[in-house]
Amino acid sequence: MLQVDLWKRVLIWMTVAVGLILATPNVFYNRVETHNDAVKAIDAGFDTTENRDAAATWPSFLPSGLVNLGLDLRGGAHLLAEVQVVEVYEARMEALWPEVRDVLRDARDTVGTIRLQPSATKGELRVKISEAGGIDRAMELVRGLAQPVVSLTGAGSTDIVVRGEDDVIVVSLSEAEQQAMDNRTMQQSLEIIRRRIDEVGTREPTIQRQGYDRILIQVPGIGSAAELKAIIGTTAQLTFQPVISRTTDASERPGAGNELVPALDDEGVFYVLEQAPVVTGEELTNAQPAFDQNGRPAVNFNFNPSGARKFGDYTANNIGSPFAIVLDNEVISAPVIQSHIPGGSGIITGNFTVEESTHLAVLLRAGALPAKMVFLEERTIGPELGQDSIDAGKIATMVAFVAVLVFMALSYGLFGIFANIALILNIALIFGLLSLIGATLTLPGIAGIVLTVGMAVDANVLVFERIREELRTAKGPARAIELGYEKALSAIVDANITTFITAVILYVMGSGPVRGFAITLGFGILTSVFTAIFVTRLLIIIWFERRRPKTIEV
Amino acid sequence: MRLKLVPEQTKFDFFSRPALWLGISAIMIVLALASFGLRGLNYGIDFRGGTTIRTESTQVVDVAAYRAALGALELGDVVISEVFDPNFRDDQNVAMVRIGAQDGEEAVSTDLIEEARLALAEVATDIKFVSVESVGPKVSGELIRTAAIAVTLAIGAVLIYVWLRFEWQFAVGAVVALVHDVVLTIGIFSELQIRFDLAIIAALLTIVGYSLNDTVVVFDRVRENLIKFKSLTLKDVLNPSINETLSRTFMTSVTTLLALIALFVLGGDVIRGFVFAMIWGVIVGTYSSIFVASTILLRLGVKRDWSKPVDTTGNQFGDIDA
């Protein structure tokens, strides 16, 4: 007959209680959020009384997990960037040139004179030797420069591939090295983006690698994607390069090993620079906004010891010649070296505004991005729109909720009320689950919850209709209830599994808001089956045990 | 006194005119496909690439003036539409501006948005861009592909599940009903030219789930009755099965519709298209589970003798719980 073991009852109520406790923080959203922010700040070392007070607004023994609000509800910016990983190959090859030059120069007897040739394909080094007969020896020498690749998949291979075409040696990166390098580039890009966004200081940004060469960046609370792009879109590749000449001819051929770089401030002015830099921004240890002796905004910087030594040596040997400070392929300034600069600190001047110099300092401090990024997708949602969406969603959910509750009560009377209690618990359980895994609630997610409110009663409806049918064949109330649950079970399971399958597919295939919808829909199915099969049943059984009705009306 | 949408016991004959119902569905499908072929879908930027800007100002939106202001920038394909919503404040005038993808650009540049802002500020001084969304052509192509895969996967997964749990005839009936619902939904979107974006795909998949939910409940009863009444003809089993589940079908559809209508009216204009798709899906899904899925099942016939061991390999899982 209608019996449920005590341990099962305890388990059901405990599950409900845990769900309710986990959902509680969302009722006090602002307080809990302040508490969480403060706790994080204290953990990060900002142990001020202010933060301590803020942390005390929510008791620490209670759970503090919240349903995160998605960008479409809170406002913020979303960017999908593609890292131009191939660009890095080029820089790598450029850096290899001096080494190749030196090793071949030592074997001048067999290979003759050497010359760097322009290459049509990027990331390839073409070196022409005058003695075609020495090509084998030359290739052997260059191969000697190869290093083993350090990666899991590329074990046993070396980093460069050397082949000969008549009197030209072509050096390119091996596939294993390319892969290993792509991975490094992505790791580094992620790290640097994270640092740059942290410098700006907003709440909980999401920075994720997506697919092979993409990065997804979501920053809540920022004004616009444009602002975010300005912070993370700049490569901030700083180099100090020797100047060969200055020109106004944009089509001038710089010659092998050199490059033509435009000036940042003077339109139409170009510099011919040696491609290999003396020192790069990677050797900077610090950068801060400052003012130069004329009171104009500038950026102060410091090198690490090896950078300082290189910088010092170069300035000592080249007094009187100009020296270019290049940022992202534009010459910021090209001062003439007045004297030896030891100690490894300097100042970058240019026509900066205070804002620009601050920005540049932030970028230099966070480090240069290894490769350029192309933005494939960007979305900005204003905070007002987000707030409007939340308000509209709240009202709609309340109205939908009340409508369904009233309708159920009118249709099934007391049993409808039981179903309604289960429905209320159901919503609490969804929020409990969402908070537990720290899921993000989006606008379609709210729609998913509202849809759940409508569909959650389905399992109960199936059972109640079954009980009605069984009552008609006059088996007595207890038997009717039991049979109702028994017979409806297979329909409930089948019907919900199919919807659950679609929710899973949506989650796997979808992105952003669609995912949010899939999560609430999927959880809604789990919790509604639980509440309908266990909670409502338990409620009915408890009622039945107390009253022992001879007849029931469903 | 209970509220009853459907009388306690009904004896409708759902199969007296199978040709009529299938005919109506066929005509609807043809209309939907024709509309899709002729008018196409009003793809949002998710699928087409480009930029959508949602503007807000206290001045009344003058679409012609907006168009003139933006026309000077030579942005190519620009669509401007005013947005109405009963929940807006009196001085809240909202418009959607859609700018097509620019030649050779992966995403619309920041400068372009700034230019648009300046141009529009000439017309409406306090104009604000409350949301700006840009999708590059590369990503939009991928989004279309993933969306198509998702819908196909969902239908395929469902086909397999129903096939394993029931019989292949049930699976065919269920999937025909699903495709029917999806096609009709796409048809209404192309006919009314409602913006079709990523969220609508989510709605489509939910419709797949919901419609199936209905169909499976009916089929479950059919399976049960097939075992109970071994001597009756398939039609005489199908009819009472649908009648018996009719009350439940309507109850669930009504509660779901109640919730969705609340969301449609009060949930704001941002998700209205999405909710509309689901409302339509619930209505069409309810219809199709009764008239399409079952009629197909009737046409295909179904193996009746459940007691003998099954020797065909295809449906060896079919009678696990039968």
UniProtKB/TrEMBL annotation, chain A:
Residues 375-543 form the Protein export membrane protein SecD/SecF C-terminal domain. Gene3D superfamilies: 3.30.1360.200, 3.30.70.3400, Multidrug efflux transporter AcrB transmembrane domain (1.20.1640.10). GO terms for biological process: intracellular protein transmembrane transport; protein targeting; protein transport by the Sec complex. Signal peptide: none annotated. GO terms for molecular function: protein-transporting ATPase activity. Residues 260-371 form the SecDF P1 head subdomain domain. Residues 186-243 form the Protein translocase subunit SecDF P1 domain. It is a multi-pass membrane protein. InterPro entries: SecD, SecD/SecF_arch_bac, SecD_1st, SecD_SecF_C, SecD_SecF_C_bact, SecDF_P1_head. It holds the Pfam family SecD_1st. Keywords: Cell inner membrane, Cell membrane, Membrane, Protein transport, Translocation, Transmembrane, Transmembrane helix, Transport. Its main location: membrane. The chain crosses the membrane at residues 395-415, 422-440, 488-510, 516-544. Belongs to the SecD/SecF family. SecD subfamily. Part of the Sec protein translocase complex. Interacts with the SecYEG preprotein conducting channel. SecDF uses the proton motive force (PMF) to complete protein translocation after the ATP-dependent function of SecA. Forms a complex with SecF. Part of the essential Sec protein translocation apparatus which comprises SecA, SecYEG and auxiliary proteins SecDF-YajC and YidC. This is Protein translocase subunit SecD. The gene is secD.
Automatic annotation (TrEMBL), chain B:
One of its GO terms (molecular function) is protein-transporting ATPase activity. Pfam families: Sec_GG (PF07549), SecD_SecF_C (PF02355). It is found in: Cell membrane. GO terms for cellular component: plasma membrane. Coiled coil: none annotated. Keywords: Cell membrane, Membrane, Protein transport, Translocation, Transmembrane, Transmembrane helix, Transport. The chain crosses the membrane at residues 20-38, 143-164, 170-189, 196-213, 249-267, 274-298. Residues 120-301 form the Protein export membrane protein SecD/SecF C-terminal domain. The keyword Membrane applies. InterPro entries: SecD/SecF_arch_bac (IPR022813), SecD/SecF_bac (IPR022645), SecD/SecF_CS (IPR022646), SecD_SecF_C (IPR048634), SecD_SecF_C_bact (IPR055344), SecF_bac (IPR005665). It is a multi-pass membrane protein. GO terms for biological process: intracellular protein transmembrane transport; protein targeting; protein transport by the Sec complex. Part of the Sec protein translocase complex. Interacts with the SecYEG preprotein conducting channel. SecDF uses the proton motive force (PMF) to complete protein translocation after the ATP-dependent function of SecA. Forms a complex with SecD. Part of the essential Sec protein translocation apparatus which comprises SecA, SecYEG and auxiliary proteins SecDF-YajC and YidC. NCBIfam families: 2A0604s01, transloc_SecF. Belongs to the SecD/SecF family. SecF subfamily. This is Protein-export membrane protein SecF. It comes from Antarctobacter heliothermus.
